[in-house]
Amino acid sequence: MTNRLGRAAAASLASALLLGGLTACSSEPAVKEKDVEKQIEQRIKSTNPDKEVKDVNCDDDLKAKVGEEVKCEAEVAGSKQKFKAVVKSVNGKTVNYSVEKD
């Protein structure tokens, strides 16, 4: 049996804007992969407090450019679920991005 986020919880997750600080590790500013993973874990836990979340992994850092995205995966209540973080805006050193079920 596959456990899934409820529709309301998934909608809350998709509409939430998250903020991230920039890093300058590479030639382009980006939100560190581990920071995106942490934000995803916190957001899932806030919308699904009764579900265990572990092993959140993203493919790469999230480049600080509108429209950029990074694919992520998390284990939620024993089920692998896919997410993506998408940059909505960049204002100075603040990156606003949404997290959506993928």
TrEMBL record:
- Its protein name is Uncharacterized protein DUF4333
**Keywords, ordered alphabetically:** Signal
Give the species.
Yimella lutea
One matching Pfam family is DUF4333
User: Any idea where the DUF4333 domain is?
Assistant: 22-92
Which N-terminal stretch is annotated as signal sequence?
Answer: 1-26
What InterPro entries is this protein classified in? DUF4333
